[in-house]
Amino acid sequence: MAEAVRHDKTARQLRLLSDALDSGRLGPVRRLINTLAPAEIGNLLESLPPGKREVVWGLVDPEDDGEVLVHVGEEVRESLLADMDTDEIVAAVEDLDIDDLADLVEDLPDTVIDEVLKSMDRENRERLEQVLSYPEDTAGRLMNPDVVTVRADVNVDVVLRYLRLRGELPDHTDHLYVVSRRHQYLGRVSLAALVTHEDSTPINRLIDDEQPAIDVGESAQEVARQFSDHDWVSAPVVDDNNILLGRITIDDVVDIIREQAEHQALGAAGLDEDEDLFSPVKRAVRGRVVWLGINLFTAFLAASVIGQFEVTLQKIVALAVLMPIVAGIGGNAGVQVLTLMVRGLALGQVGASNARILLWKEIRVALINGLLIGGIVGIIAFVWFRSPLLSVVIALALILNFCAAAAAGVLLPLLLKRMNIDPAVAGTVVVTAVTDVMGFFCFLGLATLILLH
Amino acid sequence: MAEAVRHDKTARQLRLLSDALDSGRLGPVRRLINTLAPAEIGNLLESLPPGKREVVWGLVDPEDDGEVLVHVGEEVRESLLADMDTDEIVAAVEDLDIDDLADLVEDLPDTVIDEVLKSMDRENRERLEQVLSYPEDTAGRLMNPDVVTVRADVNVDVVLRYLRLRGELPDHTDHLYVVSRRHQYLGRVSLAALVTHEDSTPINRLIDDEQPAIDVGESAQEVARQFSDHDWVSAPVVDDNNILLGRITIDDVVDIIREQAEHQALGAAGLDEDEDLFSPVKRAVRGRVVWLGINLFTAFLAASVIGQFEVTLQKIVALAVLMPIVAGIGGNAGVQVLTLMVRGLALGQVGASNARILLWKEIRVALINGLLIGGIVGIIAFVWFRSPLLSVVIALALILNFCAAAAAGVLLPLLLKRMNIDPAVAGTVVVTAVTDVMGFFCFLGLATLILLH
Q1: Per-residue pLDDT averaged across B168-192, rounded?
Q2: Quick one: fold of B149-250?
């Protein structure tokens, strides 16, 4: 399997490192670490328990410290920063790109921030302040103000001479941006166009003005969608007056896409995306107990439904044996529908215009699945308890619960979204609350009606 | 919320389109569609129910047809292809990049494939055959053989003259690859270096030979990890003899990362990632009923545990009311641990070297959460049923089930992985099977021991 192959490399490094650490030979550990990219070192640090983590952190080349800090989760970052004094932190972060520094700055102690600001030249300090003035998760926060601009009224030769004079370009520069005298964004010229055209070609013949600039207030998720739909490597960011402010690059977008996926996967289990594999026990408890409490509430809701049927249960104990099946399978069916809806919502594919069609489709699927699964369960229940009526009751209850699951799976995520609650996080709780309640109610209710009379 | 903002644009387009379609005005629909990128059109098509989908597909500019086909899921692709005749398909796909064509080719009818191959020139046909000769989900399948190579013994001026002669560069060309006479990969030269250095600079002074080339057999997931860890835009692909075969670009990597995330999210609910929002009912039933059947098996397993305690349940009906709480909350706690482990495994952060430490940490978290949640449940149960012993039983059962959940959450994904079963897909079923069985067993077992004697 691909999954197994994929991280052989990382897992092997981890094992090597772990062995070397256990044997106390720090030389090989240092050599191993310094062959890795900062993101890889970050990943490795996250996989180490606190004691070993500190040892390895101490062996990382100080030049990589800043980049490593950018590439670890918030909790691990805090634990790494706790091991550094002010001078070390300042040295680590002062060479970072503005967008990375902006990302990091809020986790730094105030005294460190002051020192970092003091160590920067005025231009960079102003740029950092500008980036920090935009809300988190917007284009303004993701952009790097370091862009290369040219005028439209020159030719390729002038631009090449300018670039040779300028020297190194910022990372991921695939385009130069063409701006007006007032620094308004006019379009872009690719390096590929520059190197494939004659010196005498005027820049305005090479301008691509089709790519719209990104608005500084655009949400990070919309930025990610545009990058992946248009296959961009970088994109210009402008303000309301079309003044060029900076540039977003694909590496940050890849991080956003990864974070979104993590947020969905962890959020669905009520976990904070910053929870560290080795979070201190206290912290892990705090992070998880709230979610368990919410689920406890819905569990008691379901129990109270069962409580209404104590008399029935006392008379027919088989009902107690079978009732979790009705609730459980209904929950699974509901989560399937929910998962499809959450994906559809995340891709913008589901809205008021097609909700009714989806509901109708899912009800039909539920009826057929209900008949199939209900039939199987009915047969097994008959073999077990030899009561044909009980089999009919459980089959009917399953069909009803599958329909409830379909309705809840389609409608609740839409409702949650309208209430500004993330359906990827809260969806499972509310959908399974419905299928639990409906499952117990239909099964025990039908049993009371049919079996007790 | 960001999620709500993000797809305002897509949702708005969908609404506009839907309204225009309903009113039968196809002119505005066509104009709207042709302002979109192929990936956006694909997304829109996926969000339309079959009837409307065909109408809109008919309005897409034939020039975009191929790219749109690349950007939709397999099920939708099939429905779109079904609307086209052979000539249309050949015209749509013949201008695609080799890697995109390779991706598509398996969904095409055999007669169409023959026509497509006939329409290609020999060089491209050989390239396509080469790409198709590598297994799916490997670097060989992702690469595009269209690369720009230079020799090390020339200078910038020669390269620039060569590029001007050559004209347009392949998309996402940020580096030229330096090869030996035998086409062995020696290193890369960035376009940024070319445009910032004097004409007379020898290429071998600009070579970056630090980036390792990707092996053609590398898994797609490992490729994605390397791209995101190293912030690459493109990377060279070589065979065992270091002969340069092609190039992988970031746009394909972004697709892999998105697909991985989808696979995890949908797989956890037992859904096929190709399931279309508007899959025909029959197909949706077939896709989901297997998963429900597997879950049915574990539900009956849990029921059979309850069946062992019929006598106890008959005597104390309150047990039937409360037992789903023990199983349900245990399941939630188990899924939290499982989710952390699945993430750790996917990142290569979890292995034999730290499993024991993680297990011990999770057991401690489980004990504390068990005491907290068990305490709360015990108190509520006392208020409800006025039996102190019953409260003790349920609190104890919860603590035990939290510990079982922690152990199952840590150990089962490791075991599944060793058995080459994807823990992201199968994990929830097996972990909740454990928490259901243990929940019912501990609660009813303790009740039998403590309350009946």
Answers
A1: 94
A2: CBS-domain (3.10.580)
